[in-house]
């Protein structure tokens, strides 16, 4: 039992300390019914991922449709230090930023909220 607890704690530690790959995720589209069905297709047939460590070479784990992530070629652009929090469900479907450079506060990053991208403190 102790061994299982140690494995779970170690996995959680490793998961929370994954380095982000360079580059900026491409801007996502607003979540619509059409994009919702595209997100199902993306989950089934594209390279699903939870973070950048799931992606090979220079690919980055980015939201592609309605909160569904896939490994994609990142856009170049400045990335501020820190990691975005993992979305806990569907957020507000607004696209207020597409890169960290769009966020006016130096302590914020452009992060997915589960549906759109917004500036969040990290």
From TrEMBL:
One GO cellular component, as annotated: extracellular space
UniProt protein name: WAP domain-containing protein
GO biological process: antibacterial humoral response; innate immune response
One protein family per Pfam: WAP
SMART domains in UniProt: WAP (SM00217)
Tree of life domain: Eukaryota
GO molecular function: serine-type endopeptidase inhibitor activity
UniProtKB keywords: Signal
WAP domain ranges (all copies): 18-75, 77-122
UniProt signal peptide: 1-19
């Amino acid at each position: 039992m102790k061994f299982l607890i140690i494995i779970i704690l170690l996995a959680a530690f490793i998961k929370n300390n994954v380095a982000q790959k360079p580059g900026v995720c491409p801007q996502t589209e607003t979540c619509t019914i059409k994009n919702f069905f595209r997100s199902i297709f993306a989950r089934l047939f594209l390279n699903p991922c939870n973070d950048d460590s799931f992606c090979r070479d220079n690919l980055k784990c980015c939201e592609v449709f309605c909160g569904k992530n896939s490994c994609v070629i990142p856009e170049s652009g400045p990335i501020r230090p820190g990691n975005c929090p993992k979305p806990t469900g569907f957020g507000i479907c607004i696209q207020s930023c597409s890169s960290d450079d769009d966020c006016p506060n130096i302590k914020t990053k452009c992060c997915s909220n589960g549906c759109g991208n917004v500036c969040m403190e990290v």
